[in-house]
């Protein structure tokens, strides 16, 4: 996981806009965010 993905996961904001190309880890980032909230 890249630093930008970690930042998106641990950011304490209500919503995040993730814009990236295919295969860049968008789903992994969103799933990481869900795990943090559980």
UniProtKB/TrEMBL annotation:
- UniProt keyword terms in alphabetical order: ATP-binding, Helicase, Hydrolase, Nucleotide-binding
Q: What is this protein called?
A: UvrD-like helicase ATP-binding domain-containing protein
Top-rank taxon of the source lineage equals Bacteria
An example Gene Ontology molecular-function term:
hydrolase activity
Pfam families listed in its UniProt record = UvrD-helicase
Q: Which Gene3D superfamilies match?
A: P-loop containing nucleotide triphosphate hydrolases (3.40.50.300)
Q: Where is the UvrD-like helicase ATP-binding domain?
A: 2-34
Q: What InterPro entries does the entry give?
A: P-loop_NTPase, UvrD-like_ATP-bd
Q: Among its keywords, does the record have Nucleotide-binding?
A: yes
Nucleotide-binding is among the record's keywords:
yes
């Amino acid at each position: 996981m890249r630093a930008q993905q970690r930042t998106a996961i641990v950011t304490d904001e209500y919503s995040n806009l993730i814009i990236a190309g295919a295969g860049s880890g968008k789903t992994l980032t969103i799933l990481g965010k869900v795990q943090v909230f559980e």
